[in-house]
Every structure is written in structure tokens, then in C-alpha cells.
């Protein structure tokens, strides 16, 4: 059996393909909405975060023979826990990750290594800052940007109660919250930028399926400064950016 960490829409597609190839698998997700999407595809799912020790125990008890990590590119803790658990039990670890995008050398594009650097870069630019990096690191941007009379911080995130509560706790005004679930078309992105008079957009380099390219390209075409947070540098070992590579590796392992 395969233990698979799923955190993106393309992870769902890969899980379906693995299942259709005759492989038995258990998908692990963090949110109920992600679990529902996988269950609707007929896949077995468990929900909730796992520490490395908890994951190792689950893998051992379930008799799993391989770990496929298709969690979000920025899910650093999940990556490390999965690699540690697989290493402890001597199981193959396979990483599936969206291919990185190439944006070119655009004068309005600034690539940074982390959230703190992104927040400071936005603070230097001032203006209307649209944050599209989710709620997990919102406190970093709130600390640097809220309270500055020359900055309007607009937070775009999933329409969940915990996200709205976090915005309230951190002082993000209701009028500056965009609670929507993507993917977003170019037209929607453009309309949002115009509505909030965005001068700076902050995003993560997640890959094509996450529509980061659409957000970035639209912003750049509108003359908006883009601050792009690069992916964490993690040594995964066996990494594939195409479904076929994972399927072939799984066939080799189970041969």
C-alpha cells in the first residue's frame, strides 16, 4: 500500500492515476474540503497533520511500502516529517512537485527567499499591497505593514472562519479582506487589482496549477510591482514533475 500526502489539485489527479493503475493507497490531507474532493473520486482519505513520529507509527501499523509526497511546495514541515518517517522505516520516498515557472527578468518583479524579506520589501514600496500568500504567515506581514499610514494591506485568502478570525485578531479590516476560492481567471485578477488599486502584489512561487503565473502575469502587465517568494530549498532525493515519472517509479518499487 502507498501512503500519499496530497495538498494540491494535481495531487488529486496523481492519486486517481495511481489508484487506476491498481495501486492501493491512503491519501493524507489537512482540510475537510480537500478530503471531500478526494473521497468524491473514490479514494481512501485521512485528515489532519501528522508529526514524523505519528506518521512513522501509522506507516508501520498499516504495512505501507512507499511514501508519495505530493503536498504543497511550501509545506516544509510536511515534507520533512514524511522524509523522516520514511527514513526511519526504510521506505522509498517519492516527491511529486509542480515544475517551477520562469518569469524572465522583469523590472517590476522581485524574487525573495522568505516571508520576512517579502514583508520588508513591500514596506519599502508602500501603497496598496495585495497579499496572496494565505493566512499561515499573515502575522508577519501584519506586523510590518499594518499601522503604516502609507500602506493599505489587502489579504486575499480562502473563505474560512478561522481565516476571518485571524484577520480580525491581527487588525486586518473587513474592507481589506478578499475571501474567495480560486482558481481565478485573468479577468477576475485584473478586476480585483483595479478594485483595490493594487500597487504591490505578494505571492508564492507554487507552480502552474496554483495559477501563480496568472496572478503574476496580470499584475506585471498592469504595471504592478510583484514580490515573489521562492520555494524552500529542500533536498528531496527522488523528485518528479510529471505524473508518468511517479507512476513508473511506483511500478519499479512494486515489481
From TrEMBL:
Pathway: Cofactor biosynthesis; adenosylcobalamin biosynthesis. GO terms for molecular function: oxidoreductase activity. Keywords: Cobalamin biosynthesis, Oxidoreductase. The keyword Zinc does not apply. It comes from the Bacteria. It holds the Pfam family CbiJ. PROSITE patterns: COBK_CBIJ. Its EC number is 1.3.1.106. This is Cobalt-precorrin-6A reductase. It comes from Paenibacillus allorhizosphaerae. The gene is cbiJ.
Amino acid at each position: 500500500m502507498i501512503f500519499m500526502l496530497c495538498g494540491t489539485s494535481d495531487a488529486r489527479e496523481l492519486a486517481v492515476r495511481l489508484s487506476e493503475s491498481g495501486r492501493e493507497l491512503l491519501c493524507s490531507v489537512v482540510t475537510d474540503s480537500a478530503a471531500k474532493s478526494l473521497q468524491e473520486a473514490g479514494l481512501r482519505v485521512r485528515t489532519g497533520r501528522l508529526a514524523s513520529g505519528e506518521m512513522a507509527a501509522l506507516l508501520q501499523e498499516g504495512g505501507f511500502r512507499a511514501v508519495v509526497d505530493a503536498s504543497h511546495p511550501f509545506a516544509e514541515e510536511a515534507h520533512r516529517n514524511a522524509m523522516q518517517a520514511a527514513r526511519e522505516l526504510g521506505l522509498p520516498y517519492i516527491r511529486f512537485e509542480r515544475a517551477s515557472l520562469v518569469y524572465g527578468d522583469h523590472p517590476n518583479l522581485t524574487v525573495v527567499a522568505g516571508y520576512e524579506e517579502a514583508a520588508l520589501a513591500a514596506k519599502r514600496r508602500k501603497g496598496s499591497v495585495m497579499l496572496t500568500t494565505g493566512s499561515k504567515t499573515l502575522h508577519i506581514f501584519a506586523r510590518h505593514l499594518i499601522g503604516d499610514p502609507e500602506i493599505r494591506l489587502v489579504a486575499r485568502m480562502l473563505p474560512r472562519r478561522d481565516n476571518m478570525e485571524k484577520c480580525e485578531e491581527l487588525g486586518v479590516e473587513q474592507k481589506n479582506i478578499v475571501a474567495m476560492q480560486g482558481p481565478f481567471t485573468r479577468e477576475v485578477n485584473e478586476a480585483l487589482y483595479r478594485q483595490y488599486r493594487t500597487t504591490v502584489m505578494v505571492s508564492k512561487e507554487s507552480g502552474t496549477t496554483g495559477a501563480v503565473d496568472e496572478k503574476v502575469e496580470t499584475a506585471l502587465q498592469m504595471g504592478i510591482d510583484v514580490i515573489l517568494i521562492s520555494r524552500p530549498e529542500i533536498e528531496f532525493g527522488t523528485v518528479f514533475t510529471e505524473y508518468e515519472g511517479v507512476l513508473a517509479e511506483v511500478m519499479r518499487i512494486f515489481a
